[in-house]
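ARCHIVE CARD
SHELF: 3
SLOT: left
DATA:
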Amino acid sequence: MKKKTYPLLEYDAAQEAVFSPADFDIPQVVPEKCVVAFSYDEVEIVAKRLGGVKVDSMDTCTAKLPLYIIDADGEKMGLVCGFLGSAGAAAQLDELIHQGARKFVVCGAAGSLSEAPLGAIVLPDRAVRDEGASFHYLPPSREVEADADMLQAIARSLEGAGVAYTVGKTWTTDGLYRETAEKVALRRSEGCIVVEMEAAALMAAARFRGAKLGYLLYCGDDMSGEQYDHRGFFDDEALRVRVVELAIRCCKEL
């Protein structure tokens, strides 16, 4: 590996790192299919509804994210709240893969860069890599493409449920409070319709590890106008529960 001007560009394709999830006492208890939902309370609600059994928890210095095994109409699958931000989300995915999961459906909120209504469903087909974690899993590039097979499978599942959706590009950024007007304009000009904090990292990590991963986002706050509008999406529990349930449906039909 050669030294670069910027450390983030020093990609190393080695599969083995100095340490990995195998070096920790992490039980291998996750079924092949797993839903990762960026919505803690709603994961708890859905897990309870489906008789979820807590089998593990991703415990860090600042967060404890319980992992449930749920029964989705007779099929066992994992259900876990995603770790906020690209670095933690990628590490969590590595742990879930070590625990046995191979097929993932990820769901969560995104900021709308178009005039899409609150709750509109977006299936990202690619992500702008404006974060750090993805560069440790794939060589440097501006974007990472979604898994085409998973995108098509999720689209078919939503169509079967009569749920409308839009396919488009997402902007993944680590800078939650640095989404400036100029950056928003630039991302919109290159085709981004939503913004979030994990998709590029999870797409890259899944590809590097040979796992299958698809994404289902819903439009939360609105960043498309002159004034920011949170639209009260923080308080819309029913919407978030619905999205988690859609993700479970999509995962079951993989």
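SLOT: right
DATA:
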Amino acid sequence: MVLNYIWIAFFLVAFAIALVRLIFMGDTEIFPAIMDSTFATAKTAFEISLGLTGVLSLWMGIMKIGENGGIVNVVARMLAPIFSKIFPDIPKGHPVTGTMFMNFAANMLGLDNAATPMGLKAMQELQTLNDKKDTATNPMIMFLVLNTSGLTLIPMSVLVYRAQLGAAQPTDVFIPILLATTVATLAGLVVTSIYQRINLLNRTMLLFILGICLFVAGGTVGFMQLSKTEVEVLSTSLANIILFSIIVIFILSGVIKKINVYDSFIEGAKEGFSTAVRIIPYLVAILVAVGVFRASGAMDMLIDGVSACVAFCGGDTDFVAALPTAIMKPLSGSGARGLMIDTMTTYGADSFVGRLACLFQGATDTTFYILAVYFGSVGIRKTRHAVTCGLLADLAGILAAIGIAYIFF
């Protein structure tokens, strides 16, 4: 329901602003620009879905082999003590636990092409536990909020863009991004747990959260000892080795279980193809709304308003120039990436604003895109508190990024 109101608001606000610009400013180009944006973003949405078709077919096929080969069940049993606390409505040892873990692991390593298919597979399995097929369940919401909070251990794309734009030390944002994204993820976990009345104050969860913090701290210290070239080589190699190892392990598990690996792959690939087709309308809906909102000038007005409020309160406004990236990130990953690059080009890759834009890009994920695609893949229309919790996690990541940027830069 919240997503419905936000979607409507994008169009109404865009129309009102465009009308004011036409009547009072004589801007005769505004409505053509908005219509151009609607057609362009609709085309982009279809192209994204088309690009996902092959990837989804591949990874859904691999996941089906892992499911039939028993690997997913093994992972599910290993994670049962932790996931039973975070997802109390999921039966202990259910295969979806293993699928969700693989999605989280792929996201943490920046393996987007693998993370999305695994996430969609997890949503389909969660839907089998759902009594009200059009309404999001608590496990679905918790799963998506942890996704949208965007915990990433290796923000490789951000580091590459910084290197391309001439940053003296492209990896100097690595630790700040790691800290900001950890804050966003923990905030998402806590906020959603409060909504769902999940008790996190128990020995298992406290040790789990402490373990995450120690893991992040250890990874941070380890990468600090490496040069820029070594970081790039290690992170890229590690990600690809893990990815291909998953494929081989899943196939071997099928061979050991004596299942027909090829038929299992085809069965899963068919599911991936149908899923890619099913999400097209949802992608078109959300991306067109975002494009209209941006083309109308509403985004620029929002940034100017924030800047005026901060200045009125006597605060430092240096961070405001980077806010477009932060505001765009929940709406569009490609849009936020473009704004990050534009900010670094305009102000310099090593400027405070340029670095902060990188932190915003790496601290959170594309909340509305993820909600539209994941919920759309299983026909969920009533999202309950998913949008609220996702945006609160994003806000925590944005505020953390601003504070961390002032500390580091």
